[in-house]
Amino acid sequence: MATKPDEKIAVLDVKLKQLLITCGRTVSVLESTKDIAINRQIESLQALSKDVEQSRREVELLKITNDEPEDEITTWNAEVEEKLSKADEDIKRLEKWQDEYKQEKESIAREEQFKFEMKLHETKLQLQSEQNTKVLGKQTIGAEKEVAVKLPKLVITKFDGSFTDWNRFWGQFSESIEKSGIANVVKFSYLKELLGDKVRRDVESLPKVIIGQKLYCVRNTGKKARL
């Protein structure tokens, strides 16, 4: 006589009940937003679903062995499958949360990495700028010292306005000061210091034009006077 599947069905019913109870915890587990708890819930549902599936096959085999009607076996299978589907849906929901959580963590990590790299880049630029400023400062100081070294001492004999002395004076002034590369305003200051009182007053009375033009006026006035 064929074995009745009552005992197997009882075991399957217990496993199905445990599966449904576990499914009932899915919502609260999701609301906890705890990755470890959600992962544990997934593992529990997967393990229980596997046990239910194994028991279902055993019961189904006994039903077939006992020559139960095929339509009854199909109906019974559909009822078990419906409960398993509930677990499958919960697993999908939980895995979806995990995927979104993982993507969010990766997005935050990328953003933090981007901020770190930007901060590092800004720091490098700032350090480079400070270094360039120091180098430029040293170069400027060096250039100023070099110019200062090259600037002539005022050893040129003053020009008193004598036409015959103009060539001598302008030759010395031109070679020592005008061609030195210093600013026109400095050249003009040197010039005034090297002029006699009367000549200085004449130069200072020139129209208010830029310094370079005053130097030009003095140079050409001297040439015309010499001629």
TrEMBL record:
Q: Which InterPro entries match?
A: DUF1759
Query: Which PANTHER family does the UniProt record give?
Result: PROTEIN CBG08539, RETROVIRAL PROTEASE-RELATED
> What's the protein here called?
Uncharacterized protein
Q: Which organism is it from?
A: Paramuricea clavata
